[in-house]
Amino acid sequence: MAKARIPHPDQLPFDWSVPMRPTLPAALAGVDARTARTVAEILKKDDRDRSVIAAEMSVLLNYKIGKGMLDAYAAPSREEHNISFGRMKALVAVTHRADLLDRELRDIGVSVLDGDEIYAAQASHIRSEISQLSQQLKIIERLHPTITRNRRK
Length: 153
Fold this sequence. Notes:
Elements (H helix, E strand, L loop, with lengths): L30 H14 L5 H12 L5 H7 L11 H11 L2 H8 L11 H27 L10
Helix pairs in contact: 2-3, 2-4
């Protein structure tokens, strides 16, 4: 039996709006600083010491992550210390903050489903398909085709 997932207390419900892909020049300008602020937000709202978070990330990555590295990733002014995508994934995994990853990915037209949220998306998709098939059935039934082969008059 699957373990019940307890959402992070700060985690907001999934945003079902469709994110838009960036098309304008400089649409992603400042993304490194925004990412650093998100790292800072993740770390600030987690009750654990940063060294514990770093240790858990190290286990996932099989690579040593230190508290100082997390501090650098969380500082928008330290442009030379941007967090890699792999390390961001590990940070999100150990802090259970997919909601903040979702927020950050929406600026490129992508959204995140966290755990069991996939079932809600699948159910919505199935309802949409059922609705389309029901409409097709109504159209066909209105045409009322009758099969008259081999009928004797």
